[in-house]
Design a protein that fits this description.
By secondary structure, the chain is α/β, with parallel strands linked by helices. The protein has two domains: 6-238, Rossmann fold (3-Layer(aba) Sandwich), CATH 3.40.50; 259-443, P-loop containing nucleotide triphosphate hydrolases (Rossmann fold). 33% of the residues lie in helices and 21% in strands. It has 16 helices and 16 strands. It has helices at 44-51, 74-79, 97-101, 103-108, 116-127, 144-156, 174-189, 201-207, 230-238, 295-302, 325-331, 340-344, 351-356, 372-386, 402-414, 432-443; strands at residues 6-15, 18-28, 33-37, 59-64, 67-69, 82-85, 162-166, 193-197, 210-215, 218-224, 259-267, 275-280, 310-315, 318-319, 333-336, 420-423. The longest helix has 16 residues, at 174-189. The N and C termini lie far apart (54 Å).
């Protein structure tokens, strides 16, 4: 048999006191789509970052086409024909779509001159395979879903024979996702090997040839898709049966007839107009719509993150003067952003600092000194209640998996004991076990 395109043997990775990977194995054959599954924190993204040269393994061996290699940087990975579509957006917001897509090629250029007309022409040809996005636009002006498509398009510009997709459809519409699946099938037909990380079983069983499961940073098993069921994959991911993704709904709570939040004729003059809604005590109100329909903008308008041209927001019948987010927090309204990395958490700050950041006055004495012990105690309590996997509350949030970062972002909102929480895609990019935990948290 031919050598695997990519072979991982006995790879381990330690971040300080956290053992992210322990003696894991993985192989990728030519022209296959190989799914990698596991809960958040199972080590999937860590292994992909090792393969892509973002981080270095503590120990273990990597072989590409049968040859042992040391992948010292993303540039070294690309020179070996390996490209990574990051789960989190890793674009330069002040550069255009075209400049982001061809940044690697630009860095390798020796000429001091740039042919922008050719750059934009080539970028638009690639982007049109995914969506009608003008490559002359700045990335900062695009919604999260379009930024995710730019990440994917950027990878397609690389001359790679191994492509890694880390949760590529988390922010995409069904139409955009289907377009991506068509491209993946074309790449497979042309002999490109693909590692596909997703928590969506339907995608995995539609696209992939084999599936490997990690749990708690360790290799569990590898099976052909035809030899395993979605329930088998989930059970091996979490180490237990998950029989109910959504908790049962209960009857109306005491006082359920009371209207807590009332929004009347809310408009921003651009993205949403004359929005009216009521939320009652103990109720979960869903706001649905396609990407670009204004869901996020409505939430931002309610809590002062987006200017409003007209409309009123009332809490328990009392009009609220919400001109900034601080006004909303003071009134008891908090907002969980869909963009976890950009505005959900402070990656460089500790878990404790993130959880307390909206309520620093509660931990500050009259002299303006912070009671770090009380701050840490609160963070430890919320981390325990939400099941955050961590080395300690003093660890930076960037050391956590995506799902655990999301739990910290939720804990930050809960720490101010809000009356109303606006949650924008609260389970985006997290595993089935974490989704179940967050659904249960919302219900109770």
């Amino acid at each position: 048999m031919a050598e695997p395109v990519l072979s991982i043997r006995g790879v381990s990775k330690q971040f300080g006191a956290v053992q992210a990977l322990t003696d894991v194995d993985f192989t990728l054959e030519k022209g296959e789509v190989h799914a990698l599954c596991g809960e958040n924190g199972a080590g999937k993204s860590t292994l992909m970052n090792i393969i892509a040269g973002v981080v270095q393994p503590t120990e273990g061996e990597i072989r590409v086409d049968g040859k042992a290699v040391r992948i010292s940087s993303p540039a070294a990975a690309q020179s070996l024909g390996i490209g990574l579509v990051h789960q989190e957006i890793a674009l330069c917001p002040d550069a255009t779509v075209a400049e982001n897509m061809f940044m690697s090629a630009t860095n390798r250029r020796r000429s001091p001159f740039m042919n922008y007309r050719a750059l934009e022409r080539d970028a638009q040809a690639v982007m049109n395979r995914l969506a009608a996005i003008d490559v002359r636009r700045k990335v900062a002006d695009l919604p999260i879903s379009s930024q995710q498509l730019v990440e994917i398009a950027k990878a397609l510009t690389l001359d790679c024979h191994v492509l890694i997709f880390d949760e590529p459809t988390a922010a995409l519409t069904e139409t955009e996702a289907q377009q991506l699946f068509s491209i993946i099938r074309d790449l497979k037909a042309n002999g490109i090997s693909i590692i596909y990380i997703s928590h969506r079983m339907a995608e995995i069983f539609s696209l992939c040839d084999r599936v490997t499961v990690f749990r708690d940073g360790r290799y569990v098993c590898t099976d052909g898709i035809v030899d395993i069921t979605p329930d088998d994959v989930v059970r091996r991911m979490v180490g237990r049966e998950i029989t109910q993704l959504y908790p049962d709904k209960f009857g109306p709570a005491d006082g359920a007839g009371e209207t807590i939040l009332s929004v009347d004729a809310l408009s921003d003059g651009e993205r949403f107009h004359d929005v009216c809604l009521d939320v009652r005590k103990g109720e979960i109100l869903g706001i649905g719509g396609l990407i670009g329909s204004g869901r996020t903008e409505i939430a931002e308008g309610i809590c002062g993150l987006r200017p409003r041209t007209k409309g009123t927001v009332r809490l328990r019948g009392k009009p609220q003067a919400i001109n900034a987010y601080a006004d909303a927090v003071k009134a008891g309204i908090v907002y969980l952003s869909e963009d976890r990395k950009g505005s959900g958490v402070f990656l460089e700050m500790s878990i404790a600092q993130n959880i307390s950041v909206l309520n620093l006055k509660a931990f500050t004495n009259r002299a303006g000194l912070l009671n770090s012990r009380a701050e840490a105690a609160l963070a430890a309590d919320f981390a325990r209640r939400l099941g955050v996997r961590m080395g300690g509350v003093e660890a930076p949030v960037k050391s956590l998996s995506g799902g655990n970062q999301q739990k910290v972002a939720i804990a930050k909102q809960l720490a101010v004991a809000p009356t109303v929480i606006l949650m924008d895609e609260p389970t985006r990019g997290i595993d089935v076990g974490a989704k179940t935990e967050i659904h249960r948290l919302l219900r109770f």
